[in-house]
Amino acid sequence: MRKNIGLTIISGLVFAFLFIPLLIIVITSFGEGSTITFPISGFTLKWYQNVFQSETFTASFKVSFQISMIATVLALLVGIPAAYALSRHSVRGKKLIKGFFLSPTVVPGIVVGYSLFQFLVISLRIPVFQGLLFGHFLISLPYAIRVIGSSLEQFDFSVEEVAWTLGCSKIKAFFKIVLPNITSGIFASFMLAFINSFNNIPVSMFLSGPGVRTLPTAILNYMEYYYDPTVSAVSVLLMIGTIVLMLLIEKTIGLSSVSK
Amino acid sequence: MGKKLPWMLLTPGLVLLVLFLALPLARIFLPTIFDGQLSFDHYINFFQDEYNMRIFVRTLKISVIAALISIVLGVPTAYFISRCGKAWKSILMALSMFPLLTNPVVRSFAWIVILGRTGVINTFLTSTGILQQPLTLLYTEFSILVGTIYLFLPIMIITLVGVMENIETDIVEAAETLGANKLIAFVKVILPLSVPGIIVGSVLVFTGSLTAYTTPQLLGGNRNMMMSTFIYQRAMSVGDWTGASVIAAIMVVTTFIVMKGMNKVAEKLDRREGQDA
Question: A5 to chain B, minimum CA–CA distance in Å?
Answer without folding.
Answer: 10
